[in-house]
Amino acid sequence: AMPTSGDASGALPHPHVVLLPSAGMGHLVPFSRLAVSLSSPGHGCGVSVATVLPTVSSAESAHLDALFGACPAVRRLDFHLAPFDASEFPGADPFFLRFEAMRRSAPLLGPLLAGAGALALVTDIALASVVIPVARDLRLPCYVLFTASAAMLSLCVHFPAYLDANAGGPVGDVGIPGVYRVPKASIPQALHHPEHLFTQQFVANGRELAKADGLLVNSFDAFEPEAIAALRNGSVAAGFPPVFSVGPLAPVSFSASEPPENQADYMRWLEAQPARSVVYVSFGSRKAISKDQLRELAVGLEASGHRFLWVVKSTVVDRDDEAELSELLGEGFLERVQGRGRALVTKAWVEQGEVLKHPAIGMFVSHCGWNSLTEAFASGVPVLAWPRFADQRVNAGIVARRGAGVWVERWSWEGDDGVVKGEEIAEKVKSVMADEMLRRSSTVVREAAMTAVAGGGTSYRSLAELVARCCD
Ligand code: UDP
Ligand code: UDP
């Protein structure tokens, strides 16, 4: 069907799709990319993003302001949560608590969605099991955006069956039918604990996914052929709904129209660096690194002799971060590395999608959050994988398998003892920076990613097919 444009009264163009992200930048980022993509002239959808205010982190709040400011075609739909008593989960991660608060408020979505006049809903994986039944009652087609890799999606789908067969025994290696075996050491930490809030949500979501109208995944056919094929051909679960592999979703540039003098300091600093000379270091938006490990990382980056741009995060929620960088990183470090302009160390948010596209970047030391990786693949930047938590070891395995980077498997994982020493970090950084083969294979990954999202490519066609279904 042809989209019709909005009329003068401001009605949304058709088809109108409501997107419902959960909490944390790792979830908001792919949803805002999807929103921009769906509302682009090529796909022509009206899009609303259901939004819970206030957000958990200030990064989310700033991102939403930028999205709605820059993209008037994307509307905000306020989702007011029911009162929620977090004291039931002492010490729980604030993002998981927000997932839970949203899950318990799912009945309130009925009236909200009915009033919005949506033709389809795309919900977040973290909310899937409670939102799918609400959408079914409204007879609203419900799609789920899985915000991690297709391999992780296959694990999410298979894991309930694994637990049932395992009859309460400890979680070991998990062989995913038609995909591959995920070793015990790569299973997200929480999944070893059945009572963990994340595990309960993960299992409930995994059980319900087969009832969705389709799954969207921010990956592409050529990159994760095993998992995508196995999900589509019923090997992972019989009768599984269609899988739309739509990645890598393109970063949205909110600052592209800014004149050069308004550019952020890190972009101006990057402009002054030679091609492929800078090591970019970030462990994502979500987790702190221990003070001891931060110190060793500082030693390692300094000893590598390379230029670097390092985004330091020392708390789970950015609003809590008051520590001084100089105190975190050790006496004299900042003066030594920043003094002569060799490095830039910041606690501020950087537009990572833009950073990774910059020609000065030579490699990426990454915690392997899936969004970060998709940005690295799309930019052809080799990754030194240092997974810490959640799905990140599964992701690091994909990086290594596809020649998009290297993974030192024995490096610490949250919950392990031990700190990786600065000398070892320095050696690895030097070897990745010097690795021409890796640079070439990372370029091959970028070319495959660009082919997938270009007109006629697998990811482009997947998204077009989803839009066509939403019009029916
Ligand atoms: N990000 C960013 N600037 C930062 C830190 C993170 O733009 O200073 C973005 C990053 O590019 C990615 C998202 O935030 O798109 C983080 O998601 P990811 O899945 O990589 O990791 P998480 O933060 O959820 O662990
Ligand atoms: N996830 C999942 N099922 C769920 C909730 C999350 O499969 O019920 C995925 C999610 O997409 C993420 C990974 O598992 O990539 C870890 O979840 P979390 O939200 O902790 O990670 P984040 O993206 O915030 O780093």
TrEMBL record:
Organism in which the protein naturally occurs: Aegilops tauschii subsp. strangulata (Goatgrass)
Family stated for the protein in its record: Belongs to the UDP-glycosyltransferase family.
Catalysed conversion reaction: a 3'-hydro-2'-hydroxy-beta-oxodihydrochalcone + UDP-alpha-D-glucose = a 3'-(beta-D-glucopyranosyl)-2'-hydroxy-beta-oxodihydrochalcone + UDP + H(+)
Molecular function, one GO term: 2-hydroxyflavanone C-glucosyltransferase activity
Statement: the UniProt record of this protein carries the keyword rRNA-binding: no
E.C. number: 2.4.1.360
Record key words, sorted: Glycosyltransferase, Membrane, Transferase, Transmembrane, Transmembrane helix
Enzyme class: transferase
Protein name per the record: UDP-glycosyltransferase CGT
Listed PANTHER family: GLYCOSYLTRANSFERASE (PTHR48048), UDP-GLYCOSYLTRANSFERASE 708D1-LIKE (PTHR48048:SF76)
InterPro entries found in the cross-reference section: UDP-glycosyltransf_plant, UDP_glucos_trans
Gene3D superfamilies linked to this entry: Glycogen Phosphorylase B
Keyword Ubl conjugation annotated: no
Transmembrane segments: 112-135, 142-163
